[in-house]
Fold this protein.
Amino acid sequence: MSIVVWEWQNELNIYLPYSALVSAQLEAARNNNVKVVPLGGIDPYLETFEVNIPMMKQKTTYNGKTREIRRVLIDSSHPFARGVKWEWNFKHDHWFPYNTEVAKKIQECADGGGAAPLQLPTLLPGYSIDVRTMIQTNVNTGFQRKIRRVTCPPYHNPGPSSRPTRSVQQPPVPQQPARQRVSMPTSSQRVPTFPASQPASQPASQPAAAFPTAAQPRPLSSTQPAAANPSRARGRPAPAATYPQSSQAASSNASRAGPSSGNSSRAGASSSSQGTPLSNTLQSIIRSSCTAYQQIGQTPDVCPVCQNNMTDPSDYTTHPSLTGLQQDRITLKCNHHIHTQCLHALISQSSSSTSFSCLECQRSYGVRSGDQPTSGKMAVKVDNSISLAGYEQFGTIIVTYNFTSGTQNGVAYSAHGFPRTAYFPDSDEGNDVVDLIKVAFKRRLIFTIGDSVTTGAKNCVVWNDIHHKTSMRRNDTYGYPDPGYLARVRAELKSKGVEQS
């Protein structure tokens, strides 16, 4: 018996596994002859990616960059089939998975007692792994990192398919059932995807993300309509307005069990969620967003997570039912159905404690907030005396961000290169985008704390994958003209749950 695992190729030409849920979605799409799968429906960090299955490519939607992907079958004895992954620590609570082959070798070493450090000169050159001390060592420099074994949703057998299986070089990897929308890897995007002693960092002026990230629920956004905004009156500049961040977003973020950083938070949530209830906020959102499932028609509906009929039990029996729900099968307000235990497993793969998204239609329930420092300020003004290339008939909206160094959740961070200024055309579409950016700023989604790719600074305030034009120079990399820019920013905001209501 084999399981199926979908993998993506990083910059080092190493194939890394998508999560079990993403693999299940891709397998389902393949079996149902779906050609393009957006990866923003499961994991909040895979929002800017889509997969073209016939071409076996992963695409970054805002810059067109593509990566190779592949589908592999592996023996069901692999730890993935038991819901086990091995990860290495980048820093703090940022953890990243070993590839399929290495994970198998580590598990075999652990099963054998791990009497001697594991060395894999072909698969993991330059490193040794000690499963007794849970340490990975760079044999050349002596630099050490922690490793860990985590539980996760298991990969499953391939679903029925009318298409032949591709043969792939490299040991097989587990899979999940098929049939749903997809989402991509996680904040691995901002850091190395393979053990390294020098971490990569996040761009200071936001170049395209290099690694896949996960996708996240989309909260509802509310902004006043264009006509109601007095600053839009043509011919008179609007006074600068300052937009403080939402204290609710700050408090909800502070209440999280851990940092919201890609694999680390998902892996941790995944293992701790077994037997652990979800937050009261999420339980309340779920209770207000669903009714008991009732089958309509002759054919049973299919759960998008476990792929079982809704009339059958969930595969995720280790996840507890949700507090206050008497039934174990529910229908969301968007009229899509899911097992409550599958919903728990799905939410456990997300970093958000205040929102989740329907896998079928991506409708968001609750409001997503980020970890942007609360010291930040955003000011907006309009200058009608200047215009941007491609928008010569309009004035310019000038958005200024300012942050100061400080401490958040007990960790010191620095703020370099502030204030930062971004430019938008004072057109209807430009104003709509700026309104959405105000909402995103209040939800603490515009910036995050990470490492800068351009300066190498660690634990500093960096952009959070919502791209800004920071130059007024014509044809500059970060300037105008760029006819598709506003539409791309809308898509990036929507992927973080910020869209016009």
